[in-house]
């Protein structure tokens, strides 16, 4: 979270962060009957929604890995990013089916705990994906979470903050587009961005846009009216970043206001390449989906898996956007995969 007062030190800080980063209702079934090694393996994946390309990428990675390992994979979702009721209903339905492993992305830190209790009581492994659950609430419910697989969102926020500092030469006014209130990833990204830029950039306004592009467009337009001297916008995900970039373009200020976001969806990478979006801290949900199925496979083979797996992230700028696009949806760099598929 630390930053420095001169350009060489600032560049060093950014380099260090980047180095750290490198170390509704659709059911999709993948694969044929499992090999003899895992005759009963059947994986359930539940994400927030399929409207956001980020969750579609996680779905696609899980389905592809299921085909590779000959494991049936069913991926379902709620109707929107904030549809906790719909997501919980999907979990409850799947809990009554013959799945042997669950991978779940919560809407917030507690929403999926209750519907997962029957799963945990049957000693079915549960992999918490992408966004963490409240440990105290998990413990109070008697829920057993086998592993967490997801990105370091504090690091992602730090990287975004360091990059914004670099572009604005350590001074200026910025606004923040936040995600879903109470959702862990958004909180960590927001806090890390603020702590990294504290004392140099002034956060003049912050508004929640629920990770939705249309809401972010509206909020960003209002921000530009209230703060005509705005120098940058940090968006907690790409959908909001793209909405902010559109608002800035509509106002004719693309040349003067920087936008940095997080996720690395394909449209955001294309926007960075074309210069509309200044940068994105790319996460790799496709790889998360792959690793979720790999983890379930390892468990079915009687092997242990790590309690926490950090998925890869990378800052994407106009300088490396083409390379990122060429490898999309997988990382264009090597990373540590504890399940053996880099």
TrEMBL record:
Residues 43-303 form the Periplasmic binding protein domain. GO terms for molecular function: carbohydrate binding. PROSITE patterns: TAT. Residues 1-36 form the signal peptide. The keyword Cytoplasm does not apply. GO terms for cellular component: cell envelope. InterPro entries: Peripla_BP_I, SBP_2_dom, TAT_signal. Keywords: Signal. The keyword Transferase does not apply. It comes from the Bacteria. Its main location: other. It is found in: Cell envelope. Belongs to the bacterial solute-binding protein 2 family. This is Ribose transport system substrate-binding protein. It comes from Acidiphilium rubrum.
């Amino acid at each position: 979270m630390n930053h420095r007062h001169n350009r060489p030190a600032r560049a060093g800080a950014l380099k260090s962060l980047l180095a750290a980063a490198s170390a509704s209702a659709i059911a999709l079934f993948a694969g044929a009957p499992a090999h003899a090694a895992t005759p009963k393996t059947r994986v359930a994946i539940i994400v927030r929604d399929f409207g956001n390309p980020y969750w579609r990428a996680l779905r696609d990675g899980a389905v592809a890995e299921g085909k590779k390992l000959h494991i049936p994979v069913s991926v379902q979702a709620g109707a929107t990013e904030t549809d906790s009721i719909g997501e919980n209903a999907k979990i409850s339905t799947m809990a009554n089916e013959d799945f042997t492993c669950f991978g779940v992305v919560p809407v917030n830190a507690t929403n999926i705990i209750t519907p997962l209790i029957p799963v945990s009581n049957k000693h079915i492994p549960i992999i918490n994906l992408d966004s963490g659950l409240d440990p105290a609430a998990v413990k109070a419910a008697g829920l057993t979470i086998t592993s967490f697989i997801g990105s370091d969102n504090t690091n992602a926020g730090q990287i975004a903050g360091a990059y914004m500092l670099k572009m604005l030469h350590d001074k200026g006014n910025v606004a923040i587009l936040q995600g879903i209130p109470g959702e862990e990833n958004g909180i960590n990204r927001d806090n890390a961005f603020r702590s990294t830029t504290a004392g140099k950039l002034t956060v003049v306004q912050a508004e929640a846009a629920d990770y939705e592009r249309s809401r972010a467009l509206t909020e960003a337009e209002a921000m530009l009216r209230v703060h005509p001297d705005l120098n940058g916008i940090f968006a907690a995900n790409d959908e909001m970043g793209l909405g902010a970039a559109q608002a800035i373009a509509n106002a004719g200020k693309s040349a003067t206001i920087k936008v940095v976001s997080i996720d690395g969806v394909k449209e955001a990478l294309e926007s960075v390449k074309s210069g509309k979006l200044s940068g994105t801290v790319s996460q790799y949900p496709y790889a998360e989906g792959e690793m979720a199925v790999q983890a379930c496979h390892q468990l079915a083979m009687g092997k242990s898996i790590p309690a926490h797996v950090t998925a890869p992230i990378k800052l994407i700028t106009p300088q490396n956007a083409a390379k990122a696009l060429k490898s999309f949806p997988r990382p264009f760099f090597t990373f540590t995969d504890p399940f053996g598929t880099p």
